[in-house]
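Notes from hallway chat w/ T.B., transcribed later so I don't forget. T.B. wanted the structure written out for a chain they're using in a teaching module, and asked if we could keep both sequence and structure tokens in one place. Agreed to drop them here.
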Amino acid sequence: MKTVFVLAIVLAVAAATLQEEEVKRKFIAFQQKYNKVYSAENFQYRFQVFADNLEKAAELQRKNPNARFGANIFSDLSAEEFRSMYLMTHFDAERANRERPPYKTEFGPAVDQEGGSFDWNSKGVITPVYNQGQCGSCWAFSATETIESYFALAGGSLTQLSMQQIVSCDTTDKGCEGGFPSSAYTYVQEAGGIDSFSNYPYASENGYTGECSFPKGSVVTDVNSQQSISGEPGLYQQLQSGGPVSVCVDASSWQSYEGGVLTSCGNQVDHCVQATGYTSYSSSYNGQSAWNVRNSWGASWGEQGYIYVATGEDLCSIGDYATIVSA
């Protein structure tokens, strides 16, 4: 009996050693892929964070069998570091609810669909995926992307607009610490419009909100009005007939996302993105219907910068803070 017990301990130690060696190999590959270099003092800490994140990714994989989680560019960041760099540290839900724009109640006819799926990328009204960098400016990106889309839908040319103008000049919100798309729209209205990305490029990727340097009179378009979209039914109607939608979500579980459909998510809003369409049950995502969501963490994250969120359960609070504009 004692021999069996000792053997079990030996096997357990061997398994743990093999597992640690596998994690080390993955960590080295991660460093090479993303050109990560650490000081001697920081190396062991980053390795442990990486190992912890692999365990969290494995747990998320179990909760989301239709998605894929693993090592990506964020894998050496603790949850606290990731939140402070890439999510909003300030999202005032009470204010967002209090200042919510009026709800849209009438929708137009459905656009042409293919197999029950539709994405506004196919209509040429979505700009390329952006990268907000280490700044919680997602709210400004989400607002800017929505203005871009509705300017194009109104007959203007598809033009990249200046989220930096909103980040630096909108004093109602908190720049790199967070904000809300609706108040960003209001700022653009009060400022007399929004400049182009080429004229006022993004410069807050290192986490600095920056001073406002908007050259008044240099604008591409304005915001005429804004509306709220009510829940997932409203989200579906708007995506089906009107255009893409700014949505604010809980993205705390998105750090290690690689692809597929998310089916488990929290409901503490900390990030704003753009819903561009939906994928039907006849899709390749293991029969799971999903919202097509454009993120602002660069095209190398997720599926070319996109994440797919299962429909029907208001996952990540995706239908709670949805807005659109007329431009």
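Follow-up for T.B.: The first helix runs from residue 2 to 34. Might be a good example for the class.
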